[in-house]
Design goal:
The protein is of the alpha+beta class. Helices cover about 10% and strands about 30% of the residues.
């Protein structure tokens, strides 16, 4: 009876100690700089730590665009994504942000296509297509 009890406890403990599936794969093609296909000089960079950067060098201070995300498979959850320190090269928000009426970016973005050279995201306002930069 003791043996059965110890075996059962070992199985339960072993199942409770499983690895998380949210680990970031550094080879994931999402984590790079992307150039918008239909808009010139528009760039977005997704970092593996959940930070979104804007502009060709990632330094643009943006009033209304989301800065942080949590990735869950093909969904980038924007709502309630934890804030993180931004890299020091990111410019502060422009002073006129207090006067800007921002539209919501939505709760999440859906990755419709992700390859080594193309990213298509469904946002609240439609599809956004990017090419690897």
């Amino acid at each position: 009876m003791k043996r059965l009890f110890y075996t059962l406890c070992s199985v339960v403990i072993g199942l409770a100690c499983h690895r998380t599936t949210d680990a970031v794969n550094p080879a994931d093609p999402l984590y790079r700089r992307w150039a918008a296909v239909n808009v010139s000089d528009t760039y977005i960079t997704f970092q593996s730590d959940g930070v979104i950067l804007y502009g060709p060098d990632g330094s643009y201070g943006i009033c209304c665009s989301p800065r942080f995300f949590v990735r869950q498979d093909s969904v980038l959850r924007l709502k309630d994504a934890p804030a993180k320190p931004l890299p020091s090269f990111v410019k502060p928000l422009p002073g006129n942000c207090a006067n800007v009426s921002c539209l919501s970016a939505g709760d999440s973005w859906k990755i419709l296509r992700l390859s080594a050279d193309q990213l298509i995201i469904q946002t609240l306002y439609g599809k956004q297509t990017y090419k690897a930069d």
